Design the sequence.
């Protein structure tokens, strides 16, 4: 082919033999729409000005006007019309003369993408009729005055969501006259949890306020014995966030025609939230080094992440599970799908999905890190999205698990869900998508297994209650915690729980029987392990207690191993080893205290201040082993946020962020962030260092625009200390 190929040819997307038009998965691209579409040869003397002509279109798109008020879209910081599907909205058309229904004919056209087609839902012509049918496209005139008419337009409750272009077409004898392309009349159509015909319909107004309209949330972390919480700014209404969320679907190459289906949207979004295999939004990093990026603990919300991705089109560094879940929650709420962020404490990452997490011990009862491949995350965050599941049998709609954290591949990509919570609870894990993986995350058993020299495995202990011991989300209308463990599983040990497990096994979840391995526990001696609660940087003590219930004397050779762990349960290093021999008198209890000094752990510490203790004791007289493990999370100091005087919309005000360094060392490379959705965009400030025991003070001046109750969220990040947060609710008065 010659070098001088025309540019027109080059720009054409490649066709493939199976389809007449190229795939249509960009909401951004447009086609040329003719302003005059002639029916044949146009006679001389034809003047389009002689016919009905559109002079202006008025969209009622300001936040205080009827459309955004009735459609609950008045919070979006976006100048265009935003409506929810399956619900009527109003527009006004001004013509060059009064409209005469007997002779004039006009219609509306909504178009999306580069190849609009009526059967794909990307070209929607709407004729004006006398009656609106619920949940179907239509328009009727509700007011006529002089040259103007006001229309009520109904959208379909199943239409695709995204940004449509609007044209008004007028019929003349010689052709169709159309309005000029005008981006000011572009209309965003979103999901509608207020509409009974919509797949995401949610019937409780308080829940809709929380799961669709609340732009701040709470992330629960730490561990089940020591729950910590922090605020997260979802910011789904902030400037350009809606466009950024629509861009994610373009990036995921979801056909425009599939964008009315929340199941499809969740499935592709769970892949595009992480950067594995598709250059998605966030790069995961769990190794405590965050060069050329932001540490996961430093983010205060989703807005910065989504806007950076939208402008650079490159994955943003770095995320961990709550960051993936926070961004995913913003995406879902922004598009109108009810969503909430979930924390599962002691979440199993079961590499071979056999509902059994193996912790291998060597001869002495120490953990064998070479053989132990499964890990138990202190906690893991995912999302639930609310929708019907027409692709499953009746009864599996409602909350669906979706997870954007890259853990395992599903159909060849790092993604997870949507999986029905109801199906997981009852063990019906045959129903798509990824239910067995989620079932294992909340239901596995922990096996402590000792490898004998000859290769036999001896099971020393089985912990059936540890995995998924607590599953929580933020309560509706408050910042407290709501326990939703019962939505995922029946009570431990109940008949229903056994039945759900047998069902899951029948549907292909692998469960090894205990009969394959020898298991004879030592029943007449009990061991317990407790750790003192303490602030990071201090010494603390741990206590091991034995209870000898028999009438014999025993001696127990006891070994304590203290490890610094990532919150994913993966060990970084062992910082404490301690062995002792315990003499156990008949029918009595004995406790042993062990001091853990800050000098032993501080220089090894990871950002979440998580320790993991293994305690193993061999009863010398019987050769039996007692084994326990426990996660301990230290208290991390908080930031204080204070306001100066009262806050009034439109007037400059200031807040002060304070922090006192509690460590016995200087903090280096300190970075502070402050944001408040609807009040101020993220502000960052670098401080070189904070010496020990000294206090840093940072004053930020800003002008709040909207009155109402808002939340400020701050984070501090440094080389030695991360996960430092502070928050403050502020009431902004009317001027």
Sequence:
């Amino acid at each position: 082919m010659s070098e001088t190929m025309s540019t027109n040819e080059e720009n054409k997307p490649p066709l493939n033999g199976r389809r007449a038009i190229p795939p249509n998965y960009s909401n951004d691209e447009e086609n040329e729409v003719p302003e005059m579409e002639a029916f044949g040869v146009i006679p001389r003397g034809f003047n389009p000005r002689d016919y009905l002509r559109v002079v202006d279109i008025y969209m009622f798109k300001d936040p205080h006007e009827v459309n955004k008020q009735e459609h609950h879209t008045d919070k979006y910081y976006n100048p265009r019309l935003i409506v929810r599907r399956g619900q009527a909205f109003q527009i006004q058309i001004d013509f060059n003369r009064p409209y005469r229904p007997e002779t004039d004919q006009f219609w509306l056209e909504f178009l999306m993408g580069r190849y609009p087609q009526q059967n794909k839902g990307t070209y929607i012509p709407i004729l004006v009729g006398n009656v609106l049918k619920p949940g179907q496209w239509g328009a009727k005139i509700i007011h006529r005055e002089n040259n103007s008419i006001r229309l009520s337009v109904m959208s379909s409750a199943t239409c695709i969501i995204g940004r449509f272009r609007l044209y008004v077409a007028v019929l003349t004898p010689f052709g169709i006259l159309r309005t000029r392309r005008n981006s000011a009349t572009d209309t965003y159509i979103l999901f509608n949890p207020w509409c009974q015909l919509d797949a995401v319909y949610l019937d409780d107004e308080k829940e809709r306020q929380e799961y669709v309209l609340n732009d701040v949330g709470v992330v629960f972390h730490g561990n089940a014995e020591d729950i910590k919480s922090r605020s997260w700014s979802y910011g789904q209404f902030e400037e350009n966030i809606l466009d950024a969320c629509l861009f994610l679907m373009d990036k995921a190459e979801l056909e425009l025609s599939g964008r009315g289906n929340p199941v499809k949207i969740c499935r592709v979004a769970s892949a595009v939230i992480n950067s594995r295999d598709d250059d998605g939004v966030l790069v995961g990093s769990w190794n405590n080094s965050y060069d050329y990026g932001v540490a996961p603990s430093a983010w205060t919300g989703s807005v910065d992440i989504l806007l950076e991705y939208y402008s650079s089109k490159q994955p943003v560094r770095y995320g961990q599970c709550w960051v993936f879940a926070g961004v995913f929650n913003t995406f879902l709420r922004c598009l109108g799908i009810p969503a909430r962020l979930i924390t599962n404490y002691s979440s199993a990452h079961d590499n071979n999905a056999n509902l059994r997490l193996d912790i291998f011990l060597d001869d002495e009862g120490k953990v064998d890190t070479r053989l132990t491949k499964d890990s138990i995350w202190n906690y893991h965050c995912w999302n639930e999205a609310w929708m019907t599941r027409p692709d499953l049998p009746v009864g599996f709609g409602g909350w669906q698990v979706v997870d954007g954290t890259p853990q395992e591949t599903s159909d060849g990509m790092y993604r997870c869900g949507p999986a029905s919570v109801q199906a997981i609870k009852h063990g019906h894990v045959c129903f798509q998508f990824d239910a067995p993986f989620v079932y294992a995350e909340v239901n596995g058993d922990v096996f402590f297994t000792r490898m004998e020299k000859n290769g036999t495995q001896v099971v020393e202990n089985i912990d059936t209650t540890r995995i998924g011991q607590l599953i929580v989300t933020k309560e509706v209308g408050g910042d407290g915690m709501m326990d939703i463990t019962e939505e995922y599983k029946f009570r431990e040990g109940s008949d229903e729980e056994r039945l759900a497990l047998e069902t899951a096994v029948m549907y292909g979840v692998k469960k090894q029987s205990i009969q394959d391995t020898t298991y004879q526990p030592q029943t007449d001696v009990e061991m317990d392990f407790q750790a003192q609660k303490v602030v990071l940087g201090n010494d603390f003590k741990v206590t091991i207690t034995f209870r000898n219930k028999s009438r014999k004397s025993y001696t127990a050779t006891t070994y304590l191993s203290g490890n610094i762990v990532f919150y994913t349960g993966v060990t970084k290093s062992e910082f404490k080893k301690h062995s002792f021999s315990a003499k156990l008198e008949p029918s009595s209890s004995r406790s042993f205290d062990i001091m853990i000094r800050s000098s032993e752990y501080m220089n090894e510490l990871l950002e979440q201040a998580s320790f993991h203790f293994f305690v193993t004791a061999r009863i010398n007289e019987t050769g039996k082993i007692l084994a326990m493990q426990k996660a301990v999370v230290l208290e991390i100091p908080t930031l204080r946020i204070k306001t100066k005087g009262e806050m009034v919309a439109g007037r400059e005000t200031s807040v002060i962020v304070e922090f006192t360094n509690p460590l016995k060392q200087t903090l280096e490379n300190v970075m502070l962030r402050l944001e408040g959705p609807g009040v101020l965009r993220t502000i960052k400030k670098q401080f070189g260092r904070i010496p020990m025991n000294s206090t840093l003070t940072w004053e930020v001046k800003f002008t709040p625009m909207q009155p109402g109750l808002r939340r400020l969220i701050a984070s501090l990040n440094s080389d030695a200390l991360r996960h430092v947060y502070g928050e403050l609710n502020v009431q902004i008065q009317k001027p």
Q: What stands out?
A: The longest strand covers residues 571-584.
